[in-house]
Structures are given as structure tokens and as C-alpha cells.
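testing teh design pipeline on a random one, pls ignore if ur not involved
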């Protein structure tokens, strides 16, 4: 679980989310589509006042029909699925230097453990 603090003017927002959403999904559309299919296409289509086939086409890569921002907002409101918001936060607001620092800290720990294992195995 990763906590990200986002500061805007005088307010502060802390988001706790599982990292890796940007690696897991190629796009916001794919992120939403996964949530829709996990919850049931028909049920979500009813919540969004759409026919299931129309929702399916909107979530596909078909360029003739698009899943609108209004529908995204309604999807989040009705399902309480915040994953699309976390996806966008990770994609556009994450601090890459913080990720690099965390990775270096983890590598340092792993190197120390590796060094101890080499000693225990009598390879040094």
C-alpha cells in the first residue's frame, strides 16, 4: 500500500492505494472495463442507463463510440470503485524520485541479505 500526499494551495489530500496500476492497465479505459466486467456488465449497464451491448462497445477500442466522462463519474459514484481515480493519480501525480528512492532502499536491503547468504554458504 502506498500513500501519496497531494498538496494543492492550502489543502492536502492523502491517497492510500496499491501501486502498479499504471503497469497493470494500458489505459484508463482498460482500468474501467476491468472494473465493469468484474462487477457484471449487465448490472453496471443498468446503473448507467445503457444496453449491455452499448456499454461493451464503449469500453472496447472501437473509435465510433466512447465512454464519456459523465458516465465515468456515474460509474465511480454508483460502484464506489475508486481504482480509475487511483490509476490517474499514479499516472499523473506520482513522484518518480520517491519511487526511485524506495527502489534503491529495497535494493540496499536485498544486497545486505544476499551478502549474508553468500557468507553463510561459505562462498566468500
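output:
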Amino acid at each position: 500500500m502506498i500513500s501519496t500526499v497531494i498538496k494543492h494551495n492550502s489543502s492536502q489530500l492523502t491517497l492510500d492505494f496499491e501501486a502498479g496500476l499504471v503497469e497493470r492497465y494500458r489505459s484508463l479505459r482498460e482500468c474501467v472495463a476491468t472494473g465493469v466486467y468484474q462487477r457484471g456488465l449487465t448490472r453496471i449497464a443498468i446503473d448507467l442507463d445503457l444496453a449491455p451491448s452499448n456499454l461493451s462497445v464503449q469500453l472496447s477500442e472501437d473509435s465510433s463510440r466512447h465512454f464519456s466522462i459523465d458516465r465515468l463519474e456515474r460509474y465511480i459514484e454508483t460502484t464506489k470503485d475508486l481504482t480509475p481515480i487511483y490509476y490517474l493519480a499514479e499516472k499523473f501525480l506520482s513522484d518518480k524520485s520517491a519511487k526511485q528512492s524506495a527502489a534503491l532502499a529495497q535494493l540496499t536491503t536485498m544486497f545486505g541479505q544476499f551478502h549474508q547468504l553468500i557468507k553463510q554458504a561459505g562462498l566468500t
